[in-house]
Fold:
Amino acid sequence: MAASTSPPDHNGLLRFTTAGSVDDGKSTLIGRLLYDSKSIFEDQLEAVESASSQKGIDGTDLSLLTDGLKAEREQGITIDVAYRYFATPKRKFIIADTPGHIQYTRNMVTGASTADLAIILIDARHGLLEQTHRHSFIASLLGLRHVVVCVNKMDLVEYSEERFDEIVKAYKNFSSRLDITDIKFIPISALHGDNVVDRSDKTPWYGGGTLLHHLETVHVGADRNLQDCRFPVQYVIRPQTDAHRDFRGYAGRIASGVWKPGDKVVALPSGKESTIDEILVGDAPLDKAFPPLSVTMTLKDDIDLSRGDMLVRANNQPESTQVLDARICWLSESPLNSATRYVLRHTTRDVQAKITEVLYRIDINTLHRVEDDVTISVNDMARVRIKTASPLLTDGYKENRSTGSFILVDPSTHLTVAAGVVG
Amino acid sequence: MSDSNYNLDHLTELEAESMYVLREVAAQFDRPAILFSGGKDSIVVTHLAAKAFAPGRIPMPLVHIDTGHNFPETLAFRDSLVERLGARLIVGSVQATIDSGKVKEETGANASRNRLQTTTLIDTIEEHQFDACVGGARRDEEKARAKERFFSHRDDFSQWDPKNQRPELWNLFNGMHAPGEHFRVFPLNNWTELDVWNYILRENIALPSLYFAHERMCIRRADQILAHSDHLNLRPEEVPEMMQVRFRTLGDLTITGAFESNADTLGKIIDEVSATRITERGGRMDDKRSESAMEDRKKEGYF
Structure:
């Protein structure tokens, strides 16, 4: 049996992130997508309508649909990553909705880490702002290959083509310094719904599709690494029951590559070779497996393999290293301390790590390198050198999101203090 | 090589994510458990766990907090599932918590044991020293849940602090904790109600009969239909009548609203869920107490 693949008319799952501040209409846009795609239920809408009238707002404030926590409703701000779901007949969507203010950089990074695409909102009246740069840089750093720039509040600039073109030009100029391959520009009004789900008759000069149409059809399958076989062992299954006395299965999520029974594999770090016997999901054998499937592999030989080890192919191996150059985002209120031994978690492996050098801090508004002040505190981005107590099996993040990413944990507080990408 | 052969349908992708989360729980924690309510979400979690650890047994017990107000069908289903999987079952009893004098039963027509079960749950966690409790909650259920992590940290008092959650990046889950603290883990975070139903259909997962349309004595209260039982305090004007109903969620007898339906197969239920315009928790009296009812209960250590 092969893993179930999508029928040709269905495009599976798209994860995207939105970043923005209260004023640029992000919550309204998400509310609009949910509302116009009929993903809002009557009781949710009633709750929002009554909350809107209580606040003395004319009409329904769609942003109230997404601002979930009490503190947020009171202050009218979004302070954490909130996940939203909607589906159309073509696709299922997961939105990571994040606040846009600089003090929430870590939330943006979190939201972007699992996304395929980012929506960047620009207020048509204000054009590119610092936060536009910040969001775009984070999208680029976190390896998002697709960005949709929504020029919002077009109703407030009389749906001006000239204004739209100006913003497109400015954004293209800025983004040429980033590493994003696919950028789309769409003139919208989230408040009135122009070009969000339905085409607007107020922008006859705009020849492209609506935002939803783009989200439904954008092709992200090619973003998955199907070339370099990497299988971090997550858990070893040894039932030791009468029926399965000798069964030994290596459970894990395929990080990259296409795997088939009969493939020759190498176990790292031991370097021992074997051949894949079966690839299982539950009891069902697969004839091939690929990311992001969770499978159990059995091998023809009895080799020693445990959590944190990795199966790869002999002719295509990750780098084994104890010194990493990486870009990190600092997530903790306590600043980076070069004397602390952090726990570095990479794939399914934990190692002790020290940050031996801060090469530079990155000003995420201007993208400039700051080399004279390298104190790294919450929401800062930096390029660092890390030394680990034992070798890690890494690839560059650009080539492989799974084997190119890591987190740092402070062993005294158990808190996740940094997120890092290799290369 | 054409990559169109390598697109997964979204249920397969969600399944892969949930299996990964469950294996991460088994790998990172010493004493994990699955909170089993007998509802469809915890049944799906249990199914995913069976799949994630096959052909081995699920390496953690199922924990059921029995309010004493459960539907008898739920309990019968629980026992047969546990037997089929060869799983270990631990039951925490709300009645025992009440008898010990730690909590007081609510009185009046709207009395429910919903809130009381938090105390029993926390006691059970402490008694067995569970360091991770896996639940079937989903982010789409309720607005306070939209910000839940997969690994959600609880302090020594089982409290959730929504403003101070650990950032969760990629699929690198951090389950490190001090003694006495524990995690709630939600493998179905990214599923919607419809995903759950479609998956149940695809995997042919057995469910308690309560989810399917059946005849039952019920009463109407406000805009709700409640199952008639010994645990429900009837008001003078309320007269039980026979109705054709089914349940969309399975909580306690006293709070779980039924609705009139003739959906007696999974296919019909999915059609009904796809067409419905009310959220599934819209039928739960416990959420209607205030706009932030769920957030407040979660902070206290509710499921």
